[in-house]
Each structure stands twice: as C-alpha cells, then as structure tokens.
Write a structure and sequence with these properties.
The structure holds 2 protein chains of 2 kinds.
Chain A lengths: L28 H13 L3 H19 L6 E4 L4 H12 L4 E7 L5 H14 L2 E6 L2 H14 L6 H17 L4 E4 L3 H4 L14 H11 L12 H10 L3 E4 L8 H12 L12 H15 L4 H10 L5 H9 L2 H4 L2 H13 L3 H9 L12 H17 L1
Parallel strand pairs in A: 1-2, 1-4, 2-3, 4-5
Helix pairs in contact in A: 3-4, 3-10, 5-8, 11-15
Chain B lengths: L4 E9 L2 E6 L2 E7 L1 H10 L5 E5 L11 H10 L4 E4 L5 H9 L4 E4 L1 H5 L2 H10 L4 E9 L5 E5 L4 E2 L4 H11 L3 E6 L11 H10 L4 E4 L5 H9 L5 E4 L1 H4 E2 L4 E2 L6 H8 L3
Classes of the chains: A alpha/beta, B alpha/beta.
Chain lengths: 373, 255
C-alpha cells in the first residue's frame, strides 16, 4: 500500500499526506495551492491598513453601549495571546474567554495571568466538568478515531459563542490565521469539528456517562450563531502581517510571556496527542504542515525545517514519557490498555454517524441559492 | 532568612475542586490533580485540601483521590474532612499525605487529638477551627462546615488543642471566606497571641499585601488563601496563580 516516499522540493510536505501530488520539479500541490491562496489575499500595506481600520471601527460600533466590544478566545498560546494584545493596542475592549478542560499547563495559566493583568482585560473561564470530560476522552480513545481533540475544539468554539450571546456581542476575534497556519491539514488528519452527531454516537457506544454539561455546538448551532444571531468569527491576525517570532519577542518583553518548546504546549494532553499519539499511532506529523506554512510565508527556511523534522525532541528528551504517565493517571488508563490502543488500527470517523452528509447537502443548497440570487 | 509559608487551601467536593463564599455556594474549579500539577510548577510551599462534604454527609475521606494527590504533589500536603478514627489517620498518612487536619471531631472529642498526636507526632496533627462572628460581635467556633454552633470561644479551643498535642492550627473566618475583603486580623491576633504553635490564617485574602498584613500584624505563622490563588478579575474567572518568590520575600521579610 505504501507509495514511494517523496518530500516536496519547496516545502516539507511528504507522502504521509494521502492526496499529495508532485509536479515535474517535485513541488507539491499543498504549497502550490497555499501560495496561490496567499497571493489572492495578499494586498498592499495601505490596503491592509485600510481594511484593519475599517474592521476595528466596525467592532467598536458593534460594542457601542455594551460592556465589551468583542470576545477574544485565549489559550495561553502565542497566537491567541498576541491577538488579545493587538485588540487592546487598537483600542478595542475585549473580554478574554478561556476554556479550562483540565489539561492546562502552568505555562498556560501564568501566560494568561500576566497578559490579562498587564492589559487590564477581564477574563471569563469556563471550567469543563472533569469526570464527564474524562469519560468522553476515554470513549474517543476506544472508538479508534484520529481526532480525539474534537471535543476540546468544539467546546472552545461553543464557549466563545455563548459568551458573545450573553453580552450581546457580534465579534469573536481568534488567533487562527492564514500566515502561520493557513495550509490545510491533509484529509484524514483532523475531523470536522462541529460534528456533534459523531461525538454523541461515539459517546453512546463507548462512554459510561451521558453528556450533561460539556459545551457542544453542532453544524446547525453554528448556522444559528453566525446567520441568525449574526455573531461573526474573525481570523483577526490576518489583518496584520503576522510574524510568529516577532510576536513572541513582543509578548516576552511586555508580559513575561513564556513560549512553549512544542506547538500546543499549553495543554498537556494536546502536546502528548500531537507530538506522540499522532506520529506514533496515526503516522501523522503535523509539524510538516506547520513548518511548510512558515516556509511559504518566509518565517522558516526549508533546511531548518528538515533539520527539525529529523528527530522528535519531545520523545527523545523523555518529556513524552513523563507526560504519558500523567495522561494515563488522569484518564484512569493502565499502561497495558494504552499500549494495546497504540497498536490497534485507526478507525475512520465516518464509521460512526456523522454530520458530514448533512454538511454536504447544506453547502449544496447554499451554493444553489447563491447562484440564483 | 526563613520566609513565612503561603499556603493554598483548596476545597474538595465529590472529588472536584470548589471554592465557597462564607462556606456557601461552592463554585466548581476543576480536577484537583491538574491543579496540583500547576502548583508544583509554581513551586508552592505546601497545600491543604479540605473535603467540605465528608463530615456533613457522614462520608469517609476520599482515599483514592488522596493517593493521586500525594503521588502528584512535590510539596507537603495536609488533608482534612471526615477524619474520625486513628484508622483514617493511618490510612491517610500511609498514602503519603504529611498532615491530617481535624475540625468537627476535635470539638466533639478533644482527646482524639492527643491520640492522633501520640500516633503521628504533633508535626502531623493539625486542628482547623472555623469561626463566625455572632450578632453581638463575639467570636464563636462552628463545626460541620459552619452549620453547627458550639458556643465555644476560639481562643479557648485553640489553647485546649495545643494542650492536647496539636502541632498547628488552621484558623478560618467564615465571614471572610471567599469575600476577598482581607483577613480578620483581630481574630487571628487573639488566637496567635494565646498559643505557641503555628497558626495558619484563612479567609479573606485578596492581595499579597493581605498576606503580609496577617503575618506581620496578625502574628500568623503562615497565610492560607483560596480565592486569591484560583480566581482572576471581576468575573471570578478560574485561573491558578501564586505570588513570585521575590515578591513574597520582599513583602514578608520581617526585619
């Protein structure tokens, strides 16, 4: 089943992405289409400033008479921290919203603390019920699907939208952005995050408890928030020429920000999942997409990316082993159970009921509707 | 020089962490194990866990959870809640918890404290005293999560407990609990002046200045706090924090 191994000559995507293709020069479709997308959104400095100015004016107008102008979701990571900083710099009055799912690291907590205190921003935290979350995570393990993180991503979005509705706010500013994470993941590397049907089906089959309090939002909830209640999700950093290294320097100097050695170090589980479970069980190394994105936007050289990919410092330093002990203790899983899990073949999300078909139908209706109008 | 201890006092309810206001309205804070891990990385001196429903609901201490807490914590840990026998004390210390904290049962049966002290040593025997101000301003000891009146004066009880062999007291003002309005310095200083064993003050701290005040003016040996280390800002957003070492050093150094 294995094709011949090949890595792109421009970025570092390789044949671990199932649908990768290469041209005669050995350049892959991932960076080609990403660079095309970048060129389409690329505007002059003046235009960017103009659109940024208009955006801030719009958010301020929406916030008029409200206790806050907008929501900024914060994790303690660099993207969301920088988004919060920029929002305040540009005269907005954000409410910072954090989802605590029981896996926050000390970094995450102290970064958020220094940031909200330093900026004088109010914080709201939603704490997920731990026993319920643990049961849901264990069910996802047992199901064998790749995206164990979907309940966190989903809850994060749901919490931001709910806080926006609570204060009558229209704008959610997110640290998600095109310049450092715009290259799409390969098919099968993640799952559609609003697939509540999938989450519930997996919980019904493998979980012990009913989902009672975990914040969740389905495709229809998303449509309700975005189109009926008109709460908009913005990739806020796209209004700036976002450079990650520069952002880290600014945050370090102003807010004693502590950067993580690994992407998503703010959550112990996420770093273990992304840097250990994904590569070791699913053969997926998300650093390929992240590094390729930075190569395309000139924030990393291809040779340093290749160098970095040679090893897995998270595993080699022993940190993975330490985190594994902690993760298993928290989930109440034995070492043997975990080893068995790592050896079992992956199960596609589509083997369980899913909202993907409904999403396809909805987008077909939407397109047809758009053509007619 | 030795810096006075600053101790997060954390409340347990059904194996989850909560924080109360005046001993009521517990707000959920999350999984105790993760919070221990965060406090580890923050290099906290000591932690105290109090199960607030064990005595009231007649339950045993949550041994399984305590075992996990003890295995995760780098710092000494004290536990209180539902301890009513030497058997309980043995089990808890055997799990790796350093101190047992006794509250309601110390009032019901003061000689239990000398039994615990004989068995475990005074350094591991802590009595916690919850105090509420009456309508005429007199301090009164309460038990069973503040629901049961005793008619007892806190100073009297503190002295009695010291005589029974308690090695430390945790003194908590029910009226200040979770209010972040500052410690009840008057209460703390009365008790601290009457005994020779360390008194850990609890209830009301909001800033590091409060910690300094209760130690310098109140004569407490250690400052205990809950809300201050788990909440942030006007929404009482759950966020774990702990003052920096040099900040404490500056504030608490008694010259």
């Amino acid at each position: 089943m294995k094709k011949n191994y090949q890595v792109c000559s421009r970025c570092v995507m390789d044949t671990s992405a199932a649908d990768i293709t290469f041209d005669e020069q050995g350049v892959c479709n991932y960076c080609t289409s990403y660079l095309k997308m970048l060129s389409e959104i690329e505007v002059s400095a003046e235009e960017l400033e103009k659109s940024r100015h208009e955006f801030h004016a719009m958010v301020k107008a929406h916030g008029n008479g409200k206790p806050y102008d907008c929501i900024v979701g914060v994790s303690g990571g660099v993207d969301s921290s920088y988004a919060l900083y920029l929002a305040v710099q540009n005269g907005l009055r954000p409410l910072a919203v954090h989802l605590d799912n029981g896996w926050d690291s000390e970094y995450s907590q102290s970064n958020i603390e220094n940031l909200v205190r330093g900026l004088g921003v109010d914080l709201h935290t939603h704490v997920i019920d731990w026993p319920e979350n643990r049961d849901m995570q264990c069910a996802l393990f047992k199901s064998g699907v790749i995206d164990i993180e979907m309940i966190m991503d989903n809850a994060q979005a749901a919490t931001n939208y709910k806080q926006a509705l609570k204060y009558g706010l229209k704008d959610i500013l997110s640290g998600t952005n095109t310049r450092t994470e715009g290259m799409p993941q390969a098919p099968g590397w993640t799952h559609y995050k609003f697939d509540v049907k999938n989450i519930r089906a997996i919980q019904n089959k493998f979980g012990r408890e009913k989902i009672k309090t975990h914040p969740l939002m389905s495709t229809l909830d998303w449509i309700y928030f975005e189109y009926i209640r008109k709460v908009m999700w913005h990739n806020y950093l796209d209004y700036f020429i976002y450079n990650k290294a520069e952002a880290i320097e600014i945050l370090k100097n102003k807010f004693q920000y502590v950067p993580y050695r690994y992407k998503h170090g703010e959550s112990v589980f996420t770093r273990f999942y992304q840097n250990y479970i994904l590569p070791e069980k699913f053969g997926v190394d998300k650093r390929r997409v992240h590094h390729s994105t930075l190569i395309c936007t000139g924030q990393m050289t291809r040779s340093s990316a290749l160098d970095d990919l040679k090893g897995n410092p998270y595993i080699e330093s022993g940190e993975a082993a330490d985190d594994q002990i902690y993760v298993l203790k928290k989930l109440g899983m034995t070492k043997d159970e975990f080893c068995d899990y790592m050896l079992l073949p992956p199960v596609p999300h589509q083997n369980y009921p899913s909202e993907m078909n409904m999403l396809k139908i909805l987008s077909r209706i939407y397109k047809a509707f758009k053509r007619q109008s | 020089m030795l810096i006075p201890r600053v101790i997060p006092c954390l409340l347990l309810q059904n194996a989850g962490l909560v924080k109360t206001v005046k001993f009521k309205d517990p707000k959920y804070l999350g999984d105790p194990i993760n919070i221990v891990k965060i406090f580890n990385d923050k290099e906290v001196d000591e932690l105290v866990f109090l199960d607030i429903t064990a005595t009231v609901e007649g339950k045993h201490p949550p041994f399984e959870l305590l075992e996990q807490v003890a295995s995760e914590a780098f710092m000494p840990v004290g536990y209180g809640g539902g301890i009513r026998s030497l058997e309980d004390v043995k089990t808890i210390l055997g799990l790796g918890i350093e101190k047992v904290v006794i509250n309601s049962y110390a009032v019901e049966n003061p000689s239990f404290i000398s039994n615990v002290a004989n068995f475990a040593g005074s350094q591991s025997t802590v009595v916690s005293i919850d105090v509420k101000k009456g309508i005429f301003g007199a301090y009164e000891v309460r038990t069973h999560r503040g629901t049961k009146t005793t008619g007892m004066d806190p100073v009297e009880l503190a002295v009695r407990m010291e005589n029974e062999g308690a090695g430390e007291l945790i003194l908590c003002s029910i009226d200040r609990d979770g209010t972040m309005k500052g410690y009840d310095i008057d209460l703390i200083s009365r008790v601290a002046a009457a005994v020779n064993i360390p008194v850990v003050a609890c209830g009301g701290s909001r800033t590091v200045h409060d910690l300094g005040a209760v130690i310098k003016q109140g004569g407490a040996s250690a400052a205990g706090a809950g809300s201050m280390f788990v909440f942030q800002g006007p929404h009482r957003a759950v966020l774990i924090s702990y003052p920096h070492y040099d900040e404490l050093e500056q504030l608490l150094e008694i010259s």
